[in-house]
Design goal:
- The protein starts with a helix and ends with a helix.
- The chain is built from 12 helices and 11 strands.
Length: 374
């Protein structure tokens, strides 16, 4: 049975957030977003909220998200992720944030649907709930949009791994199930400078899941080979991530940097090499090309356009196949069979580097006539 005292308390917190809104929001719909997960999931729901914001530019938007604890600077990690670039979590997308423990989440989402005029439960597909009589037409269209994806919504998360078969990105899935035009460009953020001491030219690496998803992790030897090979080509390698993540020999250690500082590090990098997860989202948000290593999650869903999305394809992606998918392979493998072979990975990364360098050269060449004309 759900903890009803907890659910009532969370609902009261949401009601109090609405009561505290400035008077200018009085005639606007109160719009809520519910989402579970880590940094990548937080950036995903923010991208969807930007699409909603385009339709409701003056409405108050409230995010209800799992409490992720403190960032390296002692502030709320959720607030820092939402407030990247400005330092203020309410400047970019959301009007207010409500962070709560991950307890009885499904029951809580059902209860919260009634606390908002419009509520979106953002999974990989989106359930939209419109409670104002004036929004009856929108409610009907939302129901129609979700109908095709209803089994994935109702059986979340256990049916999620089947989504890879549709060959759609997470943004296409959100758009088609909600009716809102959201794309991966909605991840884009401004990034303020923090004056960090960084090498002149460097590549970032992120090797461990900060959320503890062990099945996304490649062997240490794999990463040491990547770092060693890139250093032999003259690159400085900066390692980002949590201070608790394992260090790779030969890297400049930037683990434990705040999320805002990490965004700056990624923005200044020539490229990023890492596992699928929050840092891949952050690299895409600041416009840095990336080579992303996929294990149990599907490149068709979580890969970004223009990135080098690496997977051997030897096994069907199985994220959320069972409750322990983050801790252990269902087939008993120590490391995911989808991790690409290192002998194939390094030539692919070198070709990707050459492609980026050529694109940069073409851009510089095209800018020269413009500069001369000015």
């Amino acid at each position: 049975m759900p903890d009803m005292d907890y659910i009532k308390s969370a609902c009261r917190t949401v009601d109090e957030a609405r009561a505290a809104l400035p008077r200018r929001f009085r005639d606007e719909p109160w719009i809520g977003f519910g989402k579970l997960g880590g940094i990548g999931d937080l950036m995903q729901v923010a991208s969807f909220a930007r699409a909603v914001r385009r339709k409701y530019p003056a409405a108050p938007l409230c995010l209800v998200f799992k409490n992720l604890g403190e960032d390296a600077d002692g502030r709320s990690l959720v607030e820092n992720v939402i407030g990247i670039g400005s330092g203020d979590p309410v400047v970019d997308v959301f009007t207010t944030l409500v962070t709560i423990p991950q307890v009885n989440w499904g029951w809580l989402m059902s209860a919260l649907q009634e606390r908002f005029d419009i509520f979106f439960e953002v999974q990989y597909v989106v359930g939209g709930f419109y409670n104002r009589p004036a929004d009856a037409g929108l409610a009907a269209r939302a129901e129609q949009a979700l109908r095709r994806w209803l089994p994935f919504y109702l059986n979340f998360p256990s049916s999620s791994y089947h989504l890879g078969e549709w060959r759609m990105t997470q943004f296409e899935l959100m758009a088609k199930s909600s009716g809102f035009d959201v794309t991966e460009d909605d991840l884009a953020i401004a990034c303020a400078a923090h004056g960090l001491d960084l090498p002149a030219r460097y590549i970032t690496v992120h090797v461990t899941s900060g959320g503890g998803c062990e099945t996304k992790m490649a062997p240490r030897e794999w990463w040491e080979t990547v770092v060693r090979s890139l250093k032999l080509s003259g690159w400085q390698i900066v390692q980002i991530g949590s201070k608790y993540e394992s260090r790779v020999k030969g890297t400049v250690d930037a683990r434990g940097t705040s999320i805002n500082g990490t965004a700056e590090i990624l923005r200044g990098a020539f490229m990023h090499v890492g596992i699928e997860g929050g840092m891949a989202y952050l690299a895409r948000a600041v416009g840095t090309p990336a080579a992303i290593i996929f294990g149990p999650t599907a490149p068709s869903v979580f890969g970004f356009e223009g990135n080098l999305n690496l997977s051997s394809g030897q096994c069907r992606p199985c994220w959320h196949h069972n409750v322990i998918w983050q801790r252990a392979c269902r087939d008993g493998c120590v490391f995911c069979k989808n991790f690409p072979n290192i002998t194939e990975t390094m030539p692919a990364i070198r070709r990707f580097i050459a492609r980026i360098e050529q694109a940069d050269a073409d851009l510089a060449e095209s800018a020269e006539p413009l500069a001369a004309a000015v």
